[in-house]
């Protein structure tokens, strides 16, 4: 049963990745000409022809697609059209910078969002609940770049406490991490709150109170584990948002990470680099969702026995 | 069993519960006086929504901020409605235990039976986890769950409703409470399991002298098991009488209606008799007796005056304006009123 679970999961993951490759290929190829984007409008016809020939752009789109797919399957993700370097190298080089704001940002989301949601649910309809939920709505609805610019205005321009952009010192990390963290924290707080409120209304919580179990223990051992299931689902989905957040955050703060590389590569239709980034993101998402599915079985014994059947439907 | 002679274990006086709703506060429980004697099984009957469970959840103070409870609940000389939340928590489970409706949903789905039992034991008896586990097994044996050792490692969804009900009873016993409140302990179970659970409750009382309040909408269940029966209607007590001879001595028109509505195994099969009309919604704050609209023997004064519980015999009180002046003959509701209500 477990084998079947891994097998179907694996097939679905492959299908997802193939879809990602295909869609990016189609969109990037149909929306602009890399030769002109990279060489510039005033390049000579000869140079453009030569560029197209050397990158195989003179072939039909089908031939290009099949060749590209073949290369990807062989593990060759191609070279950057911009400087001829291996696309994988170009991306990996930027990885540490992105991870250095993504990981703390994600941790910030969890550390702020989950406790805020739990507290809000436990103090439902009090001033604390309203405060948390109002700030959550504000953070949630405000576009990421507006939030980022607000932070710059307050902490960099007005107070001069922190640099407005660039990288190098720990101080440079603060504003990008805050930007990454707060949007996700707001989402997480709302979902955690509603999950906890839902569990608090379940009969077994009142039964535990009637048994005389102390409140703190009920919250930690009865409420939180039961509320974890929907929250873990959301955390899995939020990983996608994290990548989107990185693109915006890195652009606003001129952070030399993968998000900015993605923006510049799309602008120059540098297919190999864009594909490499998206494949990496896609793999990360597939892995994350796989972990979420495994977590379900760990968190809820009712799903454990039917893991092969029920969990892979979700 | 013992009534007025010894001081009762628990004394409820003028218990009122008000719930906040979008239409303003609604009084669900409207002034209840009730004593529970030591070692007594008190049956509490009434239709769904008449305030049976709410009263006891209010006594144990678990209704949350949306509810306001007034009155007094004397337990060993202390008013439970006045003690601090911390003190109250020490009463719950250890002195007063309550089994809520639907045992399966009253158990945490993600913890094993063994964990939940041991957790309660560790908390109440201040023992270590390993001895709690041994004790948990002993408790499961006591409530007659076969294969107790194996059950400890199972989850509520893996067990039957009857087994879960026994587990819930075992948990309630883990604090050795003086009073056990069992809310509809047999409702979701089939008849043979019902009988076993009721027998178990009686056995527990016999062995430990624990007082038990048995809440049920099933008059038959309550009559068989309890020593005294209290009938509730629309948030008030309608009648209270010893269960021996209850079938004949009950006087309140509502109680009579309930008794008549119970299908009799000796009678030829015919139509079931229902009490006409329906329970007034708690939001209807009408004057007078709440039952008068459905009552076949209502007096004009019934719509003005709210009847109080009045003694009519030893250990027997009725809240009806026709009582005690009227005996059974008037309360014998004319057939055309109660009979033949097609479903």
UniProtKB/TrEMBL annotation, chain B:
Gene Ontology terms, MF aspect: ATP binding; ATP hydrolysis activity
Pfam families linked: ABC_tran, oligo_HPY
GO cellular component: plasma membrane
Superkingdom in the source lineage: Bacteria
Membrane topology field: Peripheral membrane protein
InterPro entries named in the record: AAA+_ATPase (IPR003593), ABC_Ni/Peptide_Import (IPR050388), ABC_transporter-like_ATP-bd (IPR003439), Oligopep_ABC_C (IPR013563), P-loop_NTPase (IPR027417)
ABC transporter domain boundaries: 10-259
Compartment(s) of residence: Cell inner membrane
Keyword terms of this UniProt record: ATP-binding, Cell membrane, Membrane, Nucleotide-binding, Transport
GO biological process: peptide transport; transmembrane transport
Family statement drawn from the similarity comment of this UniProt entry: Belongs to the ABC transporter superfamily.
Name assigned to this protein: Dipeptide/oligopeptide/nickel ABC transporter ATP-binding protein
Originating species: Phyllobacterium sophorae
């Amino acid at each position: 049963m477990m084998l079947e679970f891994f097998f179907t999961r694996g097939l679905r993951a492959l299908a997802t990745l193939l879809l990602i490759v295909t869609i990016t290929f189609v969109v990037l190829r149909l929306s602009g000409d890399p030769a002109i984007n990279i060489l510039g409008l005033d390049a000579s016809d000869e140079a453009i022809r030569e560029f197209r020939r050397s990158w195989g752009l003179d072939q039909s789109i089908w031939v290009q697609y099949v060749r590209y797919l073949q290369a990807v399957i062989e593990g060759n993700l191609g070279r950057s059209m911009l400087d001829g370097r291996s696309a994988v190298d170009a991306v990996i080089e930027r990885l540490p910078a992105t991870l250095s704001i993504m990981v703390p940002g994600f941790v910030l989301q969890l550390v702020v969002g989950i406790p805020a949601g739990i507290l809000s649910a436990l103090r439902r309809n009090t001033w604390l609940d309203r405060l948390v939920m109002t700030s959550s709505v504000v953070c949630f609805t405000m576009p990421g770049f507006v939030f980022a610019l607000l932070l710059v205005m307050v902490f960099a321009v007005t107070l001069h406490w922190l640099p407005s952009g660039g990288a190098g010192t720990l101080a440079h990390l603060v504003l990008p991490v805050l930007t990454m963290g707060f949007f996700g924290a707001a989402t997480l707080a709302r979902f955690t709150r509603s999950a906890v409120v839902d569990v608090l209304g379940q009969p077994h919580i009142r039964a535990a109170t009637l048994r005389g179990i102390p409140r703190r223990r009920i919250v930690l051992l009865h409420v939180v584990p039961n509320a974890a299931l929907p929250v873990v689902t959301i955390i899995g989905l939020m990983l996608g948002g994290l990548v989107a957040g990185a693109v915006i955050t890195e652009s606003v703060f001129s952070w030399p990470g993968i998000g900015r590389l993605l923006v510049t590569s799309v602008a120059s239709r540098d297919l190999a680099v864009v594909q490499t980034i998206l494949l990496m993101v896609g793999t990360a998402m597939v892995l994350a969702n796989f972990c979420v599915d495994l977590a379900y079985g760990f968190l809820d014994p009712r799903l454990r026995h039917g893991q092969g059947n029920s969990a892979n439907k979700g | 069993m013992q009534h007025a002679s010894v001081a009762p274990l628990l004394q409820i006086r003028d218990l009122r519960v008000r719930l906040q709703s979008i239409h303003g506060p609604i009084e669900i429980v409207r002034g209840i006086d009730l004593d529970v004697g030591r070692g007594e099984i008190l049956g509490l009957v009434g239709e769904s929504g008449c305030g049976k469970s709410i009263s006891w959840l209010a006594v144990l103070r678990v209704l949350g901020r949306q509810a306001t409870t007034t009155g007094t609940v004397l337990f060993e000389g202390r008013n439970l409605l006045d003690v601090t939340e911390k003190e109250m928590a020490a009463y719950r489970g250890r002195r007063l235990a309550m089994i809520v409706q639907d045992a399966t949903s009253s158990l945490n789905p993600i913890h094993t039976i063994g964990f939940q039992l041991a957790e309660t034991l560790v908390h109440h008896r201040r023992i270590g986890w390993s001895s709690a586990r041994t004790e948990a097994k002993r408790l499961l044996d006591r409530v007659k769950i076969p294969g107790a050792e194996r059950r400890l490692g199972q989850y509520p969804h893996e067990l039957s409703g009857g087994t879960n009900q026994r587990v819930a009873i075992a948990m309630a016993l883990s604090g050795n409470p003086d009073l056990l409140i069992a809310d509809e302990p047999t409702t979701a179970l089939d008849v043979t399991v019902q009988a076993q659970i009721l027998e178990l409750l009686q056995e527990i009382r016999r062995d430990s002298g624990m007082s038990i309040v048995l809440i049920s909408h099933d008059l038959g269940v309550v009559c068989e098991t309890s020593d005294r029966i209290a009938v509730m209607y629309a948030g008030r007590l309608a009648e209270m009488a010893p269960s021996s001879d209850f079938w004949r001595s009950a006087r309140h028109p509502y109680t009579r209606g309930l008794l008549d509505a119970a299908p009799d195994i000796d009678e030829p099969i015919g139509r079931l008799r229902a009490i006409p009309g329906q329970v007034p919604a708690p939001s209807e704050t009408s004057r007078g007796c709440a039952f008068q609209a459905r009552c076949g023997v209502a007096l004009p004064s019934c719509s003005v005056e709210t009847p109080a519980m009045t003694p009519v015999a030893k250990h027997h009180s009725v809240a009806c304006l026709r009582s005690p002046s009227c005996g059974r003959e008037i309360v014998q509701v004319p057939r055309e009123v109660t009979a033949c209500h097609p479903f």
